[in-house]
Amino acid sequence: MALTGRAMVLLALGIVPVLLVPQWVTLVTWLALWAGLLGVDAARAAPVSDVRLRRSTIPALRHGQEAVSQLQVLNTAPRVLRAVVRDAWQPSAGAGVTRHRLVVPPGELRRVSTGLRPWRRGDIRAAGVTVRSFGPLGLLARQRTAHVPGLARVLPEFSSRRHLPSRLARLREMDGRTAVHVRGQGTEFDSLREYVIGDDVRAIDWRASARRADVVVRTWRPERDRRVFIVLDTSRLSAARLGHAPRLDAGIEAALLLSALATRAGDRVELVAVDHAVHTRVRGAQGAALMSNLAEGLAQVEPDLVEPDWPLVAREVRERLSQRSLVVILTALEPGAVESGLISVAAAIGRDHQVLLASAEDPDADRMRLQRTSTAELFDAAAAERAELERAALAQRLTRTGARVVRRGPEDLAPGVADSYLALKSAGLL
């Protein structure tokens, strides 16, 4: 049972007769009358046990999109249901109006809708549905909270898709669908054409030139059906917040853009999310199926406050890849990476594969390095400068192992990784 504000106002009105006739009999009479009205009102309220609740299925949505949760309220009681229904969700669901007033005649059904605008990816769940059934006077309410399962999966936003058209245009140029042809080690033969001034003499096909009595050169196109193995670090390094989101979200955006680009290029993509164990693995799909599987798999990935297990990554690469491939490691360049074995693992992988290591940098660190107006800011700038020197030295050591290092802000990491992939493909290093 729950008292309403109307009941308390009615009780307060009893001060008037008590002041006019200041006797105990007056007070007791008024309290008895008030209690009787509450009892009658509660008896006329529809039993909440006779209210049936059912929730409709919510389709998956992307981060930043809106969804609607529909709740069906069926009154099986013989009385009219005058109720307030509260459809509660976890805070990250971004629920709008959660309280709904209803009048449901006996045997009828009503639907209430709660707008959701989740502000983080992953699974969001309903917290419970509370029904308050009021009597005709609105003095007392019967109340019950029921667990009505509700689940909505929020997929990654993939805001970096805006960079995809320009990268696909460059890919089409490399792939020979325009007049531009490239050549290099590890590329596939495309066609023959006449030699023009400026062509590389190493591209001349002497046998074909002898048959045609004219100098012809070979044109090449980037190899297809290569392997791209993406390692997404979900350890403590990915939990640091860069702006309003953790570093992990920047890595997810980079993985999605690279996967969309690589699958359009005809390459096979595989992704693992790993810290001290492999938590998510996506493989064996192409095109739209790959992007759908990636979105589903990455929706529930969360940082874990543990150290990364780089030898585990090396074992995964060794077991999964039998030919030369591109291994993309999305992590953070921090001084602790030396002790964790990142450099030695990158060097070991680099002997058989091309390694691309991408790190999302903190944009606040650059601003901290430039602000030196006070003593406190000067010390902060010195600490930020030292950290930057250590990260730069670590990047140089990784470069000496043959790895390519991409360091960008969280918004620029995804296009930076895509550009490095295209550069490697254009140079024939994949």
Architecture blueprint of SSEs:
Elements: E1 2-3, H1 5-12, H2 15-20, H3 24-44, E2 51-55, E3 61-62, E4 67-75, E5 81-89, E6 99-104, E7 109-116, E8 122-134, E9 140-146, E10 151-155, H4 164-174, E11 188-194, H5 206-212, E12 216-221, E13 227-233, E14 241-242, E15 245-246, H6 247-264, E16 268-274, E17 278-282, H7 287-299, H8 310-320, E18 326-331, H9 336-340, H10 342-350, E19 354-360, H11 363-370, H12 375-400, E20 404-408, H13 413-426
Parallel strand pairs: 3-10, 13-16, 13-18, 18-19, 19-20
Antiparallel strand pairs: 1-9, 2-4, 4-7, 5-6, 5-8, 8-9, 8-10, 11-12, 14-15, 16-17
Q: Helical residue percent?
A: 25-40%
Mean pLDDT: 86
**How many helices does DSSP assign?**
13
CATH architecture of the largest domain: 3-Layer(aba) Sandwich
CATH topology type of the largest domain: Rossmann fold
Number of spatially distinct domains: 3
Q: What is the tally of beta strands?
A: 20
What kind of oligomer do you see? single chain
| Main β sheet profile | 7 strands, mixed
CATH class of the largest domain: Alpha Beta
Q: Structural class of the helices, strands and pairings?
A: alpha/beta
Backbone CA Rg:
33 Å
Strand composition percent:
25-35%
CATH superfamily membership of the largest domain, which one? Answer: von Willebrand factor, type A domain
Q: How far is the first residue's CA from the last residue's CA?
A: 70 Å
| Approximate shape | elongated
* Uncertain spans: 177-186
